[in-house]
Amino acid sequence: MDGSAPFAPEASRRDIAARQPDPQDWHPLADPRSVTLFRQLLATAIGYHEATGRHLSVYGDLGELYAEIAIGLRLNRNYAKGADGRLGNDFVEVKTLSPMTRRGWVNVNFDGNFNRLLIVRICPDFRFAHRLIDRRTLGRRQGVGRVSWPG
After folding, report:
1. Does the pLDDT value for residue 99 go beyond 70?
2. Which residue, 117, 141, 145, 144, is CA-closest to 131?
3. Residue 2 included in any domain
C-alpha cells in the first residue's frame, strides 16, 4: 500500500456526476444550494462506490434532494412526523430505490399522512427516474404495503 487515499480522483467523480442531466433544467425554482449539495453528495457516493465496490447509506437523502430539484418538492424538517414534503397543497411521501436494490417495489406505510407517493429510482449507473403516484389510485389500504415500480 502506498499510503494514498483509496478514493477515485476528484476529476473522475466530477466526470461521472457530469453525466447527469443539469438539475437546473428540471425545475425552474430549484434552490441553487440544493443543486450544489445534490451534485456533491452524488459525486461522493459514486466515488466511494468506484473505489470500494460498496455503497454509502445516502440514497434516501439523494432521493429527497432529487425530488426537491426535479419536481419542486418543499421538504419538511428532518424526522418531522407525516410526509416528507409538500407539492402545492399535497403531502408527498418519498421512497427511494437504491442502485443496489434488485426488487421493483417499495414498502409504504399507508397509515401515514400523504396524498401522493413519489418513488425515485437510482439506477446502477446512477441515473435517476421517478414516478409520482396519486394515493387514490393505490386503493384503500392500511398498515404497510408494497407499491411496485413503475407504480
Report:
1. yes
2. 117
3. no
